[in-house]
């Protein structure tokens, strides 16, 4: 048995389980991996970037069991002192991370219809982890918490007020753990005081959102009551005229349920390109002359630039525009195209700095003459989740509990 305690962080997505094992003393990652294609015939697990291995059981429980087996192989099973879970939606019930109890699980279930692609999977992860690590304290860290500082003018929709009063219809925002981490890192990188600062952060992954952070607090964000509003994403449409949806329903006879599937799973980069939701595939296809891949990327970029500029209006000053997430950290093309459209803000990119690979870590990518600095900061939601778990939970080795 290893003597040192570790924190297991689990991010159960709509078809994958990402996991990390972090040293409880330093919060540095010792091991990371992904179980992907969950609930499909091709479900596999890959640890530390190794060759994928087929999962024996294809569901979330099977994926978690395979993760536990990987820990066992490395003699880490009994070192797991705490488990931190990424939970997408906490609604208005959770403004902070919390220890998981049966009551908390019930409350998370209550808000889950608002983030159907994410929350039910998150809960499957919690329940499977309870079975596999009995007695180990588990902590829920919500994507929505960081945005609880939004003022009513930023979170209200222009709908009759009774929908807010009676049904709680409002914007919540997501990716808060990422926006929180990236903003904290940005103060050091850009050498600016948190207490008088304004940042716009673009988290660009399969899900994508913009956040305006004023003096360390989220004051505006592009996602809404559900993770569908705002930017165009891998398979989600982002902002769309409700009138257009009503018209489509009338013309095609599709139900709300049909259209919900279309806007969440068949739209965005996938829907426009007709090819893929994966940006790497689309960049290559554009390069090879695929017109709709180009159209999808340019539409994606247009939205990002428009939302970054719009979010700047929620700040009292603009000290930096930061890119993060799988696309923000790795796609030189997207950063180039987005910042080209932001010249109106006095932003100038340094092409050489922008060409550095994702592995270069935190870096400024704007020219010295740029009126507003731009930077790339790799997100680390796992570290934030582990830190919250350590703050809220008690470190006991699983071996002590057994
Ligand atoms: N080197 C790269 N160049 C361009 N896009 C990339 C690169 N690496 C990853 N991506 C894109 O990042 C996206 C996934 O982002 P990620 O943040 O990992 O997603 P998730 O929201 O599932 O966590 C995909 O569209 C993928 O193509
Ligand atoms: C819930 C916010 C979101 O879109 O998450 P994802 O990027 O993991 O899909
Ligand atoms: Mg993501």
From TrEMBL:
<dbReference type="InterPro" id="IPR023865">
    <property type="entry name" value="Aliphatic_acid_kinase_CS"/>
</dbReference>
<dbReference type="InterPro" id="IPR024917">
    <property type="entry name" value="Propionate_kinase"/>
</dbReference>
<feature type="binding site">
    <location>
        <position position="326"/>
    </location>
    <ligand>
        <name>ATP</name>
    </ligand>
</feature>
<dbReference type="InterPro" id="IPR043129">
    <property type="entry name" value="ATPase_NBD"/>
</dbReference>
<keyword id="KW-0479">Metal-binding</keyword>
<feature type="binding site">
    <location>
        <begin position="203"/>
        <end position="207"/>
    </location>
    <ligand>
        <name>ATP</name>
    </ligand>
</feature>
<feature type="active site" description="Proton donor/acceptor">
    <location>
        <position position="143"/>
    </location>
</feature>
<dbReference type="InterPro" id="IPR000890">
    <property type="entry name" value="Aliphatic_acid_kin_short-chain"/>
</dbReference>
<keyword id="KW-0418">Kinase</keyword>
<dbReference type="InterPro" id="IPR004372">
    <property type="entry name" value="Ac/propionate_kinase"/>
</dbReference>
<feature type="binding site">
    <location>
        <position position="11"/>
    </location>
    <ligand>
        <name>Mg(2+)</name>
    </ligand>
</feature>
<comment type="similarity">
    <text>Belongs to the acetokinase family. TdcD subfamily.</text>
</comment>
<dbReference type="GO" id="GO:0006083">
    <property type="term" value="P:acetate metabolic process"/>
</dbReference>
<feature type="binding site">
    <location>
        <position position="175"/>
    </location>
    <ligand>
        <name>ATP</name>
    </ligand>
</feature>
<keyword id="KW-0460">Magnesium</keyword>
<dbReference type="GO" id="GO:0008980">
    <property type="term" value="F:propionate kinase activity"/>
</dbReference>
<keyword id="KW-0547">Nucleotide-binding</keyword>
<feature type="binding site">
    <location>
        <begin position="326"/>
        <end position="330"/>
    </location>
    <ligand>
        <name>ATP</name>
    </ligand>
</feature>
<comment type="function">
    <text>Catalyzes the conversion of propionyl phosphate and ADP to propionate and ATP.</text>
</comment>
<dbReference type="GO" id="GO:0046872">
    <property type="term" value="F:metal ion binding"/>
</dbReference>
<feature type="binding site">
    <location>
        <position position="11"/>
    </location>
    <ligand>
        <name>ATP</name>
    </ligand>
</feature>
<comment type="pathway">
    <text>Amino-acid degradation; L-threonine degradation via propanoate pathway; propanoate from L-threonine: step 4/4.</text>
</comment>
<feature type="site" description="Transition state stabilizer">
    <location>
        <position position="175"/>
    </location>
</feature>
<feature type="binding site">
    <location>
        <position position="18"/>
    </location>
    <ligand>
        <name>ATP</name>
    </ligand>
</feature>
<feature type="binding site">
    <location>
        <begin position="278"/>
        <end position="280"/>
    </location>
    <ligand>
        <name>ATP</name>
    </ligand>
</feature>
<comment type="subunit">
    <text>Homodimer.</text>
</comment>
<feature type="binding site">
    <location>
        <position position="86"/>
    </location>
    <ligand>
        <name>substrate</name>
    </ligand>
</feature>
<keyword id="KW-0808">Transferase</keyword>
<dbReference type="GO" id="GO:0070689">
    <property type="term" value="P:L-threonine catabolic process to propionate"/>
</dbReference>
<dbReference type="GO" id="GO:0008776">
    <property type="term" value="F:acetate kinase activity"/>
</dbReference>
<keyword id="KW-0067">ATP-binding</keyword>
<dbReference type="GO" id="GO:0005829">
    <property type="term" value="C:cytosol"/>
</dbReference>
<feature type="site" description="Transition state stabilizer">
    <location>
        <position position="236"/>
    </location>
</feature>
<protein>
    <recommendedName>
        <fullName>Propionate kinase</fullName>
        <ecNumber>2.7.2.15</ecNumber>
    </recommendedName>
</protein>
<dbReference type="GO" id="GO:0005524">
    <property type="term" value="F:ATP binding"/>
</dbReference>
<dbReference type="Pfam" id="PF00871">
    <property type="entry name" value="Acetate_kinase"/>
</dbReference>
